Amino acid sequence: MKKINLLGAGGSIGTQTVEVCRLHGIGIHSAAVKSSYKKLADIAREFCTPRVCIYDEKYYKPLKEELADTDTEILVGMEGLCELASDNDADITVNSVVGMVGLMPTISALENGMNVALANKETLVAGGEIVMKLAGERGLDILPIDSEHSAVFQCLMGVKGDVRRQLKGIILTASGGPFYGKKFEELENVTIDQALCHPNWSMGRKITIDSATLMNKGLELMEACHLFNVSADEVEIVVHRQSVLHSAVVLSDNAVIGQMGVPDMKIPIQLALTYPERVKSLSAPLSLTDYGCLTFEKPDYEAFPCLGAAVRAAKAGMTAGSIVNGANERAVELFLDGRIGFNDIGRGVSGALESIALKPVTDIETVLEADRAAREYIDDLFLS
Ligand code: MG
Fold first, then answer.
1. CATH topology of domain 3-144
2. For residue 10, which of 33, 127, 201, 351 is within the disulfide window of CB 3.0 to 4.6 Å?
3. Rounded distance, CA 297 to CA 43, Å?
4. Does 3.40.50.2300 match the CATH number of domain 317-384?
């Protein structure tokens, strides 16, 4: 039986990963959450999980009480996350942690020879150079769980020979989010609830806001550049309202291969866990005639300045990814706390990218320093 380490078990991807494991008899060797200790205890009981980690130490005690009658070992904090990520009694580490917190566990996993199924965007946005180099040197797989990157990955599964030489470009699809068609001025006063209402995908709060600002697509662009070794100019972002074409590749002869399906994250999640084989799934089959027509448009960079900032960051390289990501993560936190407006997220992200000097990514400390500087920039801009 295949076994996984599951980081971020309490979130949206984590919960769906647990469902996939249940359906296919995949074991959960270890699991980690930020704070939802009850959920973690339930997983540990159901899957007889030997090791768990609670990131936020204040939930250690209640978790210990929940699991008092079991042999489950309980770890805490970043150290615990990295320990579980690198536990090679499992076959693969699934990293679905939200935010920069996910970077170090990915590195730990790779350093210890673990293949990684990756749903944590920050791993590649901020640490792409380091992470891809490490995976390459060790001959390890990074299997994308994000629907777009999984789509590209699936398209490339069908390309024989030198894949990179035949890959001319990527078409990265975007739903357009809840504010599709709106102008920048119209977005000034949108509420948290309006921003949290996504038309096609059910996801966690942070990524749903990122989808509303289109920052999510910008982060995905940077991820795609690292994962598939392409430049930002080789990726076209296309707004596709129906989220049926999950992304496509353009090959050297201009043939375009796309991957389609109903919007359901369980398809990419289970492929990452059963790769290279495909197995049956509970996801609904796609009926193209039910949709009738699929639409494709250019994104509106004026209404969604986060996307423009992310494209500039992708082109700039160096620590630009860490800067826009850190600034965005902090700004989204402030927005969700009701302390800044929706458009302030874009102002903050663009401002951080313009103001903070870029440095080459030589080591992890450079990445973390750029992240800190970006968060400080946001706090100085909005809170002082
Ligand atoms: Mg996505």
1. Rossmann fold (3.40.50)
2. 33
3. 42
4. no
